[in-house]
Prior knowledge:
Layout: H1 2-5, H2 11-20, H3 24-32, E1 36-37, E2 52-53, E3 59-64, H4 73-85, E4 90-93, H5 100-110, E5 115-117, H6 119-126, H7 136-149, E6 153-156, H8 178-190, H9 195-198, H10 200-210, E7 213-216, H11 231-249, E8 254-258, H12 267-277, E9 283-286, H13 298-312, E10 316-318, H14 331-351, H15 355-369, H16 373-379, H17 383-391, H18 414-442
Parallel strand pairs: 3-4, 3-10, 4-5, 5-6, 6-7, 7-8, 8-9, 9-10
Antiparallel strand pairs: 1-2
Helix pairs in contact: 2-3, 4-5, 4-14, 6-7, 7-10, 12-13, 13-14, 15-16, 16-17
Amino acid sequence: MFYARSxxxxxxxxxxxxxxxxxxxxxxxxxxNGHAVLPxxxxxxxxxxxxxxSKFLVKVNANIGNSSVKADLDSExxxxxxxxxxxxxxxxxxxxxxxxxxxxxAIIRNSPVPIGTVPIYEALQRVGGSVEKLSWELFExxxxxxxxxxxxxxxxxxxxxxxxxxxxxxxxxxIVSRGGSIMATWSLAHHRENFLYDHFEDLCEVAQxxxxxxxxxxxxxxxxxADANDEAQISELRTLGELVxxxxxxxxxxxxxxxxxxxxxxxxxxxxxxxxxxxGAPFYTLGPITTDFAPGFDHIxxxxxxxxxxxxxTSMLCYVTPKEHLGLPDADDVxxxxxxxxxxxxxxxxxxxxxxxxxxxxxxxxxxFEFRWEDQFNLALDPxxxxxxxxxxxxxxxxxxxxxxxxxxxxxxxxxxxHRLRKEQRIEIRAKMEEKSAxxxxxxxxxxxxxxx
Length: 453
């Protein structure tokens, strides 16, 4: 942000501009005014620069991480690689089990995309799970350690204030954010204000030193559609807007996290309020999950909300896997969540008229109509799935050149029939042109013919 405000275009800004198909000056301007962030810790040289903002391609984050129930370092690295393979623009390590530091280090060193964390999780582990023993000094120590490893952005639950906690008592699902519940418990145990809020200027100093982007967590986001857009959620959002201004004043890049569980009719209001209260800071939303009745399919119910909220202006979507609310996702769940969310993000980009998104749809449509099966597979979001579905019934190499698929067969393929109609029309048009040509020659091939008296 300091460079951007000083009218200096860095090599990272140039790289991002090339990826997004815009000018370097446009990238610099969006970072300078706080409407976009370029998360890139100085200690994470493996990452490729990317940008998050409403005027750029919609990004997708994948959450991974171990738990106290299941912890395996290699599995988390594998999940990260799966997420990146299927299009994750960033990955968050939300580990709460054993080997948190080693797991995070392995993920960072193998990751070509920015890595995010929630430092309060590790802080809690260091005090043996005793929330009351948490302190600003411990949190700062964890934040610095993670920054030295190369974490690019950190979720900070600094907007959950003591007066907001009673507002959640009448909710159906109370406080569902893990970080939010930790900070609420600490505040009530000490009957003091959230120490992350009280030390937010100090927090910004650490972030600025390592060029870490702050992601302001929604600690009291709704955990059910019944609680969406309530007083607790909006009160915290107002405080997050205040913290956005403090972060920017300290040359710290900042984005704002959003819900959560929101029915379709309340999605637009969330985007409008965040833009208004947080001065256009990039909005980073979990879903939202649009209905609560489909455990096991929340990657679908939330992808519906994700496509809608991204069309309205959300900058980055946090994916949801089929295991949401049920268990710790594995690599297959990561793949399912990523494909659902890349579809949502792409659909929003198409709706907003982004040239890159439109171009890919056009090229795939042309390959489909021209029966270029290999091109169609390779342009698909998941080429392996597309190819395997086709080959289930038509595996022979010759089928890759056939002008039909197993759904329609050779006689009922609409596109094949369309090709035939076009050919017949061309023949008919050619015949009529030949007729007019013969008429022209029969009249002496004269351009101008005297009118008859």
